[in-house]
Amino acid sequence: MVPREQLLDAILHELAVCKHLVAKVPEGGFDYRPSEKQRTTIELLRYLATCGIGPIESMVAGDWEHYSKREETVKEMTAEEFSEVMEKQGEAIREAFTQISDDDFANKIVQAPGAGKLPLGTAIMRTSYAWLVAYRHELFLRAKASGNAAINTANNWGGIDWKPQNEVEEETEA
Domain boundaries in the chain? Predict the structure, then answer.
């Protein structure tokens, strides 16, 4: 299993990349819906705003009502509020990690949706981390599909604006 600090760092990285990507969604892109039965981009942001902390709180407590309560707090969230909400989610995840003992992280068996009964640390990796990776990637695809052709792999995986080497060389020469 991934050590807890590395898992926490990986989760926090995903939150940071999401905050980077939200700024890449072009005007009008938050209403984009790929198909009738899929979320709009703003609905996707609302999901991202809870899918990191929601499973952690729920699995620690043994009660998935915590997740529903988290969803209620963001049901009216705007795209402009997303970065701040993600920052708060990161703080809540950091705090939750400090409250989980090493023994519970490695040995407490919890019910993880779609994954069955797992040790808590593994369950966090299979829910919070995996969901953030998957839906962060969907956010990247939404930004592209709604008109931002300039973003690329570096935006998606690193949360950075990448410049082709020739542009970097031109800037340093000037």
Answer: 4-173
Its CATH class, for the domain covering 4-173, is mainly alpha
Q: What is the pLDDT of residues 67-120, one digit of tens each?
A: 889 899 999 999 999 999 999 999 999 999 999 999 999 999 999 998 899 999
Q: Following DSSP, what letter does each residue of the chain receive, concatenated?
A: ---HHHHHHHHHHHHHHHHHHHTTSPTTGGG--SSTTSPPHHHHHHHHTTTTHHHHHHHHHT-THHHHHHHHHTTT--GGGHHHHHHHHHHHHHHHHHHS-HHHHHH-EEEETTTEEEEHHHHHIIIIIHHHHHHHHHHHHHHHHTT-TT--HIIIIISS----HHHHHHHHH-
CA 109, distance to chain mean position in Å, is 24
User: Whole-model pTM above 0.85?
Assistant: yes
CA separation for the pair 117, 95 (Å, rounded): 24
